[in-house]
Amino acid sequence: MAKIFISHSHKDRAFVHRLARDLRHQKVEVWLDDSELQVGDDFAKKLDEAVAANDFLGVVVSTNSITSEWVHRELRLALDDEASRAGPKCCRS
User: Fold this and answer.
1) Is 55 helix (H, G, I), strand (E, B) or coil?
2) Distance between the two ends of the chain, CA-based, in angstroms?
3) Euclidean distance between CA atoms 55 and 93, whole angstroms
4) I need a surface site. Which of 18, 38, 74, 75 has the fewest CB within 10 A?
5) Pairing between strand 29-31 and 56-59?
6) How far apart are CA 26 and CA 38, in angstroms?
7) pLDDT tens-digit profile of 5-61?
């Protein structure tokens, strides 16, 4: 089963929850912060782990998300994770 981390602004929550429901209906495992994070969790650490553990990063692009510091952070985490997996281009087989 494919797994996706959905990066979004909380201001777009209604749309994001409909999207997550539709993806789950298609047998996609969805990671949303408001359903996965608990009070007292180390948010930064949990986000790092979640981005690395999912197959895909989906970004809900909206007026709200393009100004969200958390969305920008999640994108940087995903890019850093992808770059670390790829390794140097000179050494790929």
Assistant:
1) coil
2) 27
3) 22
4) 38
5) unpaired
6) 26
7) 999 999 999 999 999 999 999 999 998 877 777 677 677 788 888 888 889 999 999
